[in-house]
Amino acid sequence: MGTTLRNKWTLERLLGAGGMAAVYVGVHRIGRRDALKILHPQAAKSKEICDRFEREAQAANRFRHPGAVEIRDIDVAEDGAPFLVMELLEGESLSERERRLGGVPLAEVLRFTAQVLDTLGAAHAQGIIHRDIKPANLFVVREDPESTPPPGVGPRIKVLDFGLARIRQDSSLQGELTRMGIVLGTTPYMPPEQAKGRDIDARADLFAIGATMFRLIAGRHVHEASTDFDLLLKMGKEPAPPLAQRAPRTPRDVCLVVDRALAFDRDQRYPDARHMLEDVRALLRGAPPPYASRFARAIDPDAITLHGQQAPTGPGEEAGPATVRASPASSPTVVDAIDVDWSEEPPASVDAVTTEWTGPASAKEDSIAVEWSEEPPDAGAPGSHPARR
């Protein structure tokens, strides 16, 4: 390509492009290679998008954690387009990994989830809520072939794209992007309060982690609909189905954790990333998740504990080794069932809401902006990934 920015960076090749920005391999004049994320000229005309772009850099650098992509600089090109200088990662997003492999093994899902929770716990401690956790924003780093990770650790995962992050106690960074009634995020991974444009806290990220686990284990989203508009309505009105209904051969302890993260009422979810991380680490050890198990017993004192048994099968099926469906195209991944406590919650009920679009509809995996009205509906109303080498 050969284009030069600020007399310092030479663009070597395009890595990928989205609706707002493109990512290139950039070579600094001292020889360092980084990823340069450059806003498209049209997007650069929007103050809101530019503010979001700058906030991505500020949020990522407000806390330092090996699980967050490093943003090293922000600058403006000669044509006025802002760009970020980021660490250059080699690997693939979790969504790309799922497509390439035809599914993600359950043990790997749990290991990745533990890493993401550790990263988000550090972000939450600094008052940063990501607001857009999804497989496309989780990057699996390809390790140096000469280095060998410790046994049982597996690949590292990095959390990307803090462009929608909400930073507590810093109104200068929130500005217009956090005004009441505007929905920012990716619909299939939104908690109901976010889908309705209401105030959120760190438990919104935990819901999104639960929705990501649900997607990877069951091979489908928590809710599905023919249009993004209808999907948003579902996310705001309907509780998540129990994971066992969509992936009935999943070990029950895993179901306990995912269902707790996906509780419709955020007061019924994990209170923070640390408690959920402790439960996921327990699953990795083959032990019952302490918080989810206690919560289940508090709701249902007669909750059953199974020892080494498979989750329920359909009528006429015989019990056998527990398996997990990881994606529509995958073969089941064999896992060992572990001790569990299980209970089912009655679904929460919520009032009907109406919606009014403030922007064009987008694909289900894209960020959207929607305004929710608190008025009851009429009777006839219808219900960039990181740089890669």
TrEMBL record:
Q: Which PROSITE patterns match?
A: PROTEIN_KINASE_DOM, PROTEIN_KINASE_ST
What UniProt keywords are attached to this protein's entry? ATP-binding, Kinase, Nucleotide-binding, Transferase
Give start-end of the signal peptide: none
Q: Where is this region: Disordered?
A: 306-389
Q: Its domain of life?
A: Bacteria
Task: List each copy of the Protein kinase domain by range.
Answer: 9-284
Read off the InterPro entries from this record: Kinase-like_dom_sf, Prot_kinase_dom, Ser/Thr_kinase_AS
Q: Which SMART domains does the UniProt record give?
A: S_TKc
Q: Does the keyword Transmembrane apply?
A: no
Provide the GO MF annotations for this entry: ATP binding; protein serine/threonine kinase activity
Checking SUPFAM superfamilies in the record gives:
Protein kinase-like (PK-like) (SSF56112)
**Pfam families in the record:** Pkinase (PF00069)
The answer on whether this UniProt entry bears the keyword Metal-binding reads no
PANTHER family, alphabetized: MITOGEN-ACTIVATED PROTEIN KINASE KINASE KINASE 20-RELATED, SERINE_THREONINE-PROTEIN KINASE NEKL-3
Query: What protein does this entry describe?
Result: Protein kinase domain-containing protein
